[in-house]
């Protein structure tokens, strides 16, 4: 049984105790719900992978209450301090060299010489991390390859019975995951995943940002960039200017093609922040309703390619990507994507 905890002080105390004892607690952040566990305990980290059916080659982000705590686990450079000052707490994950004295387990870091660190925003998650005082590994609280959860009910749909508790802090305000920026070489800040902090905002702090090509091999620079991900059961058709009678419609803006029986508008006013916050709930809802109406897919209207539009499009591209059985070297990886 998974215990549903509210964000009261007793709920927080219980969640913190479970985490310190090596249990698994999903909690809300400003981006999506994370499946949290003590990153310093290898057995706990192994349970995270098991609960998610996650490929083991995916390293996890360690979460902290503040930059000072985060920078005890990595070798921070001046650019890291500048970015932390500008964006933390907030939806930015920094990849930095792992400190020689880091207590984060090899399993959480996947044995890499770098570590992903993040200071999430939100009263509840901040209070929790302050109580726990440990690096908390937290991938999104969904089964591997599936849609990320943006409220506590979504987490239970994915993981009920597989984790100890869910700390309910209501719906997530940003709605897409953090931006992942590799600054392990500060001369070459590289955007590994677009997310809640926009490219424009990053560029205002570190003039040039590099972008790797999307990789589909078995050992990508950032495994969250595997092509098929965030996948609903129904196939997804992008940049749709029309909709077939047997398709559900994920709409954007106030001009919609006619004919959809089931639709979800990301933002009628064309606001990209609102659209990001409603994205995963929309995909989940259309997927469920579409299947029960025997529809054959989800058509998605074009999304403007600036600001949070990049992160939204990235998630939609993955949701729409073909789902081949990727070569997968380790047994734990089940081809759910
Ligand atoms: O918003 C978020 O970041 C959420 C919330 C829960 O904090 N977490 C999340 O975690 O999205 P996850 O595990 O689903 O995504 C972590 C991403 C993956 O793309 C992973 O490959 C990348 O960060 N990552 C982690 N450590 C890395 C490293 N050392 N080098 C490169 N990429 C890394
Ligand atoms: Mg994820």
From TrEMBL:
<dbReference type="InterPro" id="IPR010923">
    <property type="entry name" value="T(6)A37_SUA5"/>
</dbReference>
<comment type="similarity">
    <text>Belongs to the SUA5 family.</text>
</comment>
<dbReference type="GO" id="GO:0000049">
    <property type="term" value="F:tRNA binding"/>
</dbReference>
<protein>
    <recommendedName>
        <fullName>Threonylcarbamoyl-AMP synthase</fullName>
        <ecNumber>2.7.7.87</ecNumber>
    </recommendedName>
</protein>
<feature type="binding site">
    <location>
        <position position="58"/>
    </location>
    <ligand>
        <name>ATP</name>
    </ligand>
</feature>
<dbReference type="InterPro" id="IPR050156">
    <property type="entry name" value="TC-AMP_synthase_SUA5"/>
</dbReference>
<dbReference type="InterPro" id="IPR017945">
    <property type="entry name" value="DHBP_synth_RibB-like_a/b_dom"/>
</dbReference>
<keyword id="KW-0808">Transferase</keyword>
<keyword id="KW-0548">Nucleotidyltransferase</keyword>
<dbReference type="InterPro" id="IPR006070">
    <property type="entry name" value="Sua5-like_dom"/>
</dbReference>
<keyword id="KW-0547">Nucleotide-binding</keyword>
<dbReference type="InterPro" id="IPR005145">
    <property type="entry name" value="Sua5_C"/>
</dbReference>
<dbReference type="InterPro" id="IPR038385">
    <property type="entry name" value="Sua5/YwlC_C"/>
</dbReference>
<feature type="binding site">
    <location>
        <position position="118"/>
    </location>
    <ligand>
        <name>ATP</name>
    </ligand>
</feature>
<feature type="binding site">
    <location>
        <position position="114"/>
    </location>
    <ligand>
        <name>ATP</name>
    </ligand>
</feature>
<dbReference type="GO" id="GO:0006450">
    <property type="term" value="P:regulation of translational fidelity"/>
</dbReference>
<feature type="binding site">
    <location>
        <position position="178"/>
    </location>
    <ligand>
        <name>L-threonine</name>
    </ligand>
</feature>
<feature type="binding site">
    <location>
        <position position="148"/>
    </location>
    <ligand>
        <name>ATP</name>
    </ligand>
</feature>
<dbReference type="GO" id="GO:0008033">
    <property type="term" value="P:tRNA processing"/>
</dbReference>
<dbReference type="GO" id="GO:0005524">
    <property type="term" value="F:ATP binding"/>
</dbReference>
<dbReference type="GO" id="GO:0005737">
    <property type="term" value="C:cytoplasm"/>
</dbReference>
<feature type="binding site">
    <location>
        <position position="63"/>
    </location>
    <ligand>
        <name>ATP</name>
    </ligand>
</feature>
<feature type="binding site">
    <location>
        <position position="193"/>
    </location>
    <ligand>
        <name>ATP</name>
    </ligand>
</feature>
<keyword id="KW-0963">Cytoplasm</keyword>
<feature type="binding site">
    <location>
        <position position="140"/>
    </location>
    <ligand>
        <name>ATP</name>
    </ligand>
</feature>
<dbReference type="GO" id="GO:0061710">
    <property type="term" value="F:L-threonylcarbamoyladenylate synthase"/>
</dbReference>
<dbReference type="Pfam" id="PF01300">
    <property type="entry name" value="Sua5_yciO_yrdC"/>
</dbReference>
<keyword id="KW-0067">ATP-binding</keyword>
<dbReference type="GO" id="GO:0003725">
    <property type="term" value="F:double-stranded RNA binding"/>
</dbReference>
<feature type="binding site">
    <location>
        <position position="230"/>
    </location>
    <ligand>
        <name>ATP</name>
    </ligand>
</feature>
<feature type="binding site">
    <location>
        <position position="31"/>
    </location>
    <ligand>
        <name>L-threonine</name>
    </ligand>
</feature>
<feature type="binding site">
    <location>
        <position position="54"/>
    </location>
    <ligand>
        <name>ATP</name>
    </ligand>
</feature>
<dbReference type="Pfam" id="PF03481">
    <property type="entry name" value="Sua5_C"/>
</dbReference>
<feature type="binding site">
    <location>
        <position position="138"/>
    </location>
    <ligand>
        <name>L-threonine</name>
    </ligand>
</feature>
<comment type="function">
    <text>Required for the formation of a threonylcarbamoyl group on adenosine at position 37 (t(6)A37) in tRNAs that read codons beginning with adenine.</text>
</comment>
<feature type="domain" description="YrdC-like">
    <location>
        <begin position="9"/>
        <end position="197"/>
    </location>
</feature>
<keyword id="KW-0819">tRNA processing</keyword>
């Amino acid at each position: 049984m998974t215990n549903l905890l509210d964000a009261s002080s007793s709920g927080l105390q219980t969640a913190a105790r479970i985490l310190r004892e090596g249990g698994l607690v999903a909690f809300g952040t400003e981006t999506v719900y994370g499946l949290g566990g003590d990153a310093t305990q290898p057995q706990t980290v192994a349970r995270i992978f098991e609960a998610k059916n996650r490929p083991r080659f995916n390293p996890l982000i360690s979460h902290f209450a503040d930059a000072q705590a985060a920078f005890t686990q990595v070798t921070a450079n001046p650019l890291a301090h500048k970015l932390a000052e500008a964006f933390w707490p907030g939806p930015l994950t920094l990849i930095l060299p792992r400190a020689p004295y880091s207590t984060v387990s090899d399993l959480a870091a996947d044995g890499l010489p770098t570590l992903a660190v993040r200071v999430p925003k939100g009263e509840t998650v901040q209070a929790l991390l302050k109580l726990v005082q440990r690096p908390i590994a937290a991938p999104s609280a969904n089964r591997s390859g599936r849609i990320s959860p943006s409220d506590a009910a979504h987490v239970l749909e994915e993981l009920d019975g597989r984790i100890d508790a869910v700390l309910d802090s209501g719906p997530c305000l940003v709605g897409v995951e953090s931006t992942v920026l590799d600054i392990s070489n500060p001369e070459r800040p590289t955007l590994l995943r677009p997310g809640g902090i926009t490219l424009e905002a990053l560029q205002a702090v570190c003039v040039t940002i590099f972008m790797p090509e999307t990789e589909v091999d078995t050992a990508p620079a950032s495994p969250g960039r595997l092509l098929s991900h965030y996948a609903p059961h129904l196939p997804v058709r992008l940049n749709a200017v029309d909709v077939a009678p047997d398709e559900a419609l994920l709409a954007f803006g106030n001009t919609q093609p006619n004919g959809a029986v089931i639709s979800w508008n990301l933002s009628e006013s064309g606001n990209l922040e609102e659209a990001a916050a409603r994205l995963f709930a929309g995909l989940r809802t259309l997927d469920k309703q579409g299947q029960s109406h025997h529809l054959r897919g989800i058509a998605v209207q074009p999304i403007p390619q600036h600001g949070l539009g990049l992160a939204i499009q990235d998630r939609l591209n993955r949701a729409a990507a073909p789902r081949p059985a990727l070569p997968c070297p380790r047994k734990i990886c089940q081809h759910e994507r």
